[in-house]
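quick one if you have a minute, typing this from the bus. theres a chain ive been looking at and ive put its sequence and its fold in token form underneath. please have a look and point out which stretches look like helix strand or loop to you. anything you notice is useful, everything is just below.

***
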Amino acid sequence: MQNRRGKPVAVVIGATSKWQSDGRSCFTVVTTRTEKNAAPLAAAIREQGGECMVVELDLVSQDSIAGAFATIREEAGDPDALIYNAGYLEGRDLPADQELLEYIPLEMFDTTQHIACRGPFLVAKEVLPAMRKKGAGSFFFSNNSSSLRGKKRMTGQSLYYPRVMMRTLAQVLTEEYSEFGVHVANIIIDGSIDSPGSRALPRNQNRPDLVISPVKIAEAYWYLHTQDKSCWTHELQLTPYASKPSF
């Protein structure tokens, strides 16, 4: 399906570089809680000759999600690809003596559930019906190694164990929608993504082999989107060669 500009529509939930066609083959819709957060990415897409629009979307609000996708359908068209890349920082500021569940505020847990489980559930309800009727589409989850099994939250870490539910949802949607031609995949980013902030971390200093190139991550997503239906990948783990893969 093509949008009103004659191109397939790719929707990215959360401003990110984890999507790369050739800069021109898709019309990209970037959603973010506030439009200014996506300004650098939108500018980069346009500098490469691509077309895009930014739509504000708050994953905590069902009305915001519904309104955002109504705008997307009206101004761009039904999505051909959906990249769920939303993340959160909740938990990182808790002190060293508050690692146990009893110290986790309910509001913090609620936020992580909104982003890791409820949010993707509501987004899926907005886009999967049209993909099913069309018989084609991609729905990809950006996840991390904490989704592989339940793990204790350590000091300085976000409250990541709700991401196990995100992986579970991806598995369920794979079983439900693959037969209708919809490609669902859980992508595990098993390491630090290269950025000034990640390079400044003690474990990564002077170790460029421990960080993952965002360009190569984007290429992996495009590879998934262009896979033949006879050979779909439903879970992809991206780990730097110098690190031991998480299990």
Summary: Residues 9-238 form a domain with the Rossmann fold fold (CATH 3.40.50.720). The mean pLDDT is 89. The radius of gyration is 18 Å. The CA atoms of residues 66 and 125 lie 10 Å apart.
